[in-house]
Amino acid sequence: MSRTSTGTATAKSTPTSSFVPSRWLRFSAWASFVLNTLIIATGGAVRLTGSGLGCPDWPLCAPGSLVPTDELSYHSLIEFGNRTISGPLLVFAILTLVLSWKVRGQRRDLSVLALIVFGLVALQAFVGGVIVWMHLNANLVAFHYVVSLGLVCLTAAFIARMNEAPGARERVVPKPFAIVTHVTTLAMALTVLVGVLTTASGPHSGDSTIQRDGIDAVLMSHIHSWPGYTALALTVVLLVWAVVQKLRPLPWLVALLAVLVVQILVGVYQARNGLPPLAVGVHMVLASLTAAAMTIAVLRLKRPVAQD
């Protein structure tokens, strides 16, 4: 037996299983991740162009028509385009679940993750319809985005776990490093939640007839920045720590810091320039990529246990 830098005993031999994901499972998992990220971009486009009620009905676009009619404007095409992505997104969620279920004897973790993703994708489709019926209720729109963000994290976690051996896992970083990592995750979660409230109080309501009130958008933007800068500082600490001790999460901490810096720069730009729609949309997508990188960095705190 040997020991890691944290004092955890490990074996020197092969992992617990020689499981290799099929080509179809890999493709389906990556497609699911990409589509869940893409639908955040298209959902942002719907909101930022005022196309939230471009298709005034659901599941049909307009009464008696599944697709936009000649009477509807370009807003209908934007809203319908966002809805269209829901189809393949659901298909790949089902395909990933079926393929994972076939290997559940070896990879129960993958089948559980795939089942959760499928359930949330189905929930999102229903919530999207309710949002239209309730004329872009701000709370439901915020919930819709947060669930989409969670789906990006879950599909990223699926890909990360798919490429590792199954079975028990052991911590391979010092305990204080793991604690700081989880505190960083909390800071990022607060940043996202306050950011959702900030956007909900801003001018981009999703339709020209919808008005938001009750929260000072300028105040919220300042509050939004506090946990954001905290997460940045903690990420820098983690990166330096990982470089000095050559810790396993290092590559993903580099990616996380890079995306986080760009995210903050875009956030500062949009706040100082009157929230231009394109910048707000980029900010939304970068939030999902930041969350995905943070998810994988957390997963890299452990590795599969090896056995004799």
From TrEMBL:
**Listed GO biological process terms:** heme A biosynthetic process
Q: Which UniProt keywords apply?
A: Cell membrane, Disulfide bond, Heme biosynthesis, Iron, Membrane, Metal-binding, Oxidoreductase, Transmembrane, Transmembrane helix
The membrane topology noted for this protein in its Swiss-Prot or TrEMBL record is: Multi-pass membrane protein
Superkingdom of this protein's organism? Bacteria
User: Where is the protein found, in the record's own terms?
Assistant: Membrane
Residue intervals passing through the bilayer:
27-48, 85-103, 110-136, 142-160, 172-197, 226-244, 251-271, 277-299
- A GO term for molecular function: oxidoreductase activity
Q: Name one GO cellular component term.
A: membrane
Name listed for the protein in its UniProt record? Cytochrome c oxidase assembly protein subunit 15
Task: Please tell me the species this chain comes from.
Answer: Leucobacter exalbidus
